[in-house]
Each structure stands twice: as C-alpha cells, then as structure tokens.
Amino acid sequence: MIKVFYGDDRQRAQQEIAGFLGTKDYEIIEGADLTAADFPSIFLGNSLFSKKRAILIRDLTTNKPAYEKLSEYLNTPHDIAILELKLDKRSAIYKSLKDQIEFKEFTLPKNPNFNLVFDIYRTAKHDGKKAVKMLEKIQSEEDPIMFCGLLISQALKDFKARQGTKEKRALAELSKLDLDLKSTSLPSWLLVQSFLLRLSSL
C-alpha cells in the first residue's frame, strides 16, 4: 500500500507515517536520488528479514522522472509512505494518482497575526514608536525569530518593487537583526523593537 503525506506540518505528518508504517525502524529513501531502475527493488523486492517492508520515501515529487514511474508500482506488497512538503495538485501525475492512492495533507494553523506583522513593518517605516506599541500587543504570542523572518519577507517585497537605498539598508539591518537574534544574549524583543525604532531613519 502506498500513501502520500504532505504539507508544512512535518511533525504531524511524521506521527501519521509512524502509525501507518507501524514501526520506527522503517527504511528511509531520498526521492531526489532515485532513478527508474531503482523502483523494482524498492517496490517489489523483499528484504532478508521480511517479505513485507516498511519504507519512507522523502521528496519524490522533486524528481519528476522517478515520480512519473509511481503509477507502475501501485500493486506493491509493501507499506510505502511518501513525504512531501508541497504537492502540485494541477499536475497530470497527481490527477492520475489521486483516485488510486491516499493523499493526506497536514498544514500548520494560520497565524492570526500574520497580516498585522506586515502592518507593523509598514508603520515602522514612518513611525517607529507606534510600530513598537503595535508589537507589544502581540509579542507574547509570537516567536521573535519567526517574526524577524516575516519582516524580512516584507522587506524583500519592498526591495523588488523599488530597489532604493532605503530598501537596501532595511535588508542589511534585518540581516544583522536575524544574526543577533540567533547569537546574542540580549533580550530578543528588545532587539526587534530597536530595529523598528531605527527603520524610519535608515
């Protein structure tokens, strides 16, 4: 039996895979390294210890020539889990497989403060003190490193739209902030607030 587990909640996906495969001692194969010639031994071959194998294949869809061969091995006697971060549901391969094998999606819950993070960044570009006050309302619910990552994604959008000096400086400062958050002993949110206060004067 083949099942595909996909989505950004890798922890839940791994728990489901362990339940499906019924053991923690399953074989792990990197899908990116496979060739079509490997498929018969993986999907049809027996091991020395058991006729039925438990196998996890990671990131098979990144290897399109190998992924296209999957439909030829749906009658495998083994339990095979395929773990993917993303899945293109528009692809012909997915459409041909979706009614023949089980696909299970695991997504992380959406951050309710997601859009507010970008509002904070936009506000900080002209009013750092107001941005800090906005941040104080949500920082107990956020992780400072993840928050910094969202700030960086917004700064990159700004830079793509207008590659000016201010946009370049903002990215440089955010790069430094990201490094400081991961290496310094200073309070993380204090570092973030300091960046927000400086942003309007960059």
Care to describe what's here?
- The protein has 202 residues and is of the alpha/beta class.
- The chain contains 9 helices and 5 strands; from the N terminus they run E-H-E-H-E-H-E-H-E-H-H-H-H-H.
- It has helices at residues 10-21, 39-44, 64-67, 92-97, 114-124, 128-138, 144-161, 165-183, 188-199; strands at 2-6, 27-30, 54-58, 79-84, 102-105.
- The chain has a 5-stranded parallel beta sheet, with helices on one face.
- Helix 8 (165-183) runs antiparallel to helix 9.
- It is elongated, with a radius of gyration of 23 Å.
- The mean pLDDT is 91.
Mean pLDDT: 91
Order of helices and strands: EHEHEHEHEHHHHH
Uncertain residue ranges: none
Radius of gyration: 23 Å
State the helicity in percent bands.
Answer: 40-55%
Question: N-to-C terminal Cα separation, in Å?
Answer: 58 Å
Overall geometry? elongated
Count of DSSP-assigned helices: 9
Gist?
By secondary structure, the protein is of the alpha/beta class. It has helices at 10-21, 39-44, 64-67, 92-97, 114-124, 128-138, 144-161, 165-183, 188-199, and strands at residues 2-6, 27-30, 54-58, 79-84, 102-105. The chain contains nine helices and five strands, in the order βαβαβαβαβααααα.
